[in-house]
TrEMBL record:
It comes from Lolliginicoccus lacisalsi. It comes from the Bacteria. Residues 17-260 form the NADP-dependent oxidoreductase domain. Belongs to the aldo/keto reductase family. One of its GO terms (molecular function) is oxidoreductase activity, acting on the CH-OH group of donors, NAD or NADP as acceptor. This is Aldo/keto reductase. The lineage of its organism: Bacteria, Bacillati, Actinomycetota, Actinomycetes, Mycobacteriales. Keywords: NADP, Oxidoreductase.
């Protein structure tokens, strides 16, 4: 299976389907990531705060897959914002992962009240210039944060990783991304498993013969989102990868997009978190 790539505005590409490892304890991360790599995933999403960079990196190094064929994302945690801390935090992540570069480094949350994200982003640009990271982006940035970042640094993050699933599909933010050439990456793409009983989704699953999880992931792909579902169950890891053999009709995509509700957010509010 060839997973499609999304082209980023810095010229690099990111596999549209990846494997997220939030809440996987470090001791289990090696086995889970090894299962994902054996299944065919070539894009792994971790973060400093997940406390599993070591197990994740070990699985990548021991997989036998050439480094340039695995796309690795990690994220700068909130208390590491600011220029010097960010540079140190990056080096620490690299050591824990046991890798010589990262494909994508993200500011995990904007923390707008602290006012450090523009300075932090400039530090990430320096890491890019030094060749330690291929691409730099952000996570959980709202439109005003993106506007301020672009204005202050003159740089546009290549990607914004945001909460995005059928009950919270972020139409305004996706539209802003499209206008600025920012790729949209969906976290909790399955709504953390909480939306799998939705009758519209189960209905479309029956229509297509796919599972509800596959229908949701297919919806993300057809919207153009990069998507990073998480599971530790080998059968589900495979199921979530097996989404390239069918397509949703435009009408089915629209029915899923219509599930968006104003209070559909599951995770924290980026303005106050
Ligand atoms: P998700 O939407 O991927 O849901 C994962 C849960 O859904 C699993 O724990 C399991 O209970 C269920 N599930 C998964 N596959 C299934 C299947 N095929 N059938 C039935 N149930 C299934 O939620 P997530 O883990 O929150 O998000 C995915 C990834 O996004 C994370 O691992 C992490 O890498 C990233 N993330 C980033 C942020 C951020 O702030 N940037 C926040 C949360 C998550």
């Amino acid at each position: 299976v060839n997973v499609p790539n999304v082209r980023l505005q810095d010229g690099h590409t990111i596999p549209q389907l990846g494997y997220g490892v939030w809440q996987i304890p470090d001791g289990q991360a090696q086995e889970a990531v090894a299962t994902a790599l054996a299944t065919g995933y070539r894009h792994i999403d971790t973060a400093r705060i997940y406390d599993n960079e070591a197990g994740t990196g070990q699985a990548i190094r021991e997989s036998g897959i050439p480094r340039d064929q695995v796309y690795v994302t990690t994220k700068l945690w909130n208390d590491d914002q600011g220029r010097d801390r960010a540079l140190r935090a990056f080096d620490d992540s690299l050591v824990r992962l046991g890798l010589d570069h990262i494909d994508l480094y993200l500011i995990h949350w904007p923390k707008p009240a602290e006012g450090l994200y523009t300075e932090t982003f400039a530090a990430l640009q320096q890491l890019k210039a030094e060749g330690k990271v291929r691409s730099v982006g952000v996570s959980n940035f709202q439109i005003p944060h993106l506007e301020r970042l672009i204005e202050a640094t003159g740089e546009v993050p290549v990607i914004n990783q945001i909460e995005l699933h059928p009950r919270f599909s972020q139409p305004e933010l996706r539209e802003f991304h499209a206008r600025h050439g920012i790729a949209t990456e969906a976290w909790s793409p399955l709504g953390q498993g909480q939306i799998l009983q939705d009758p519209v989704l189960t209905g479309i699953a029956t229509e297509t013969g796919a599972t509800v999880a596959q229908v949701i992931l297919r919806w993300h792909l057809q919207l153009g989102n990069v998507v990073i579902p998480k599971s530790v169950t080998p059968g589900r890891i495979k199921e979530n990868f097996d989404i390239f053999g069918f397509e949703l009709t435009d009408e089915q995509v629209d029915r899923i997009t219509a599930l968006d509700v104003a209070d559909g957010r599951i995770g924290p509010d980026p303005d106050t978190f």
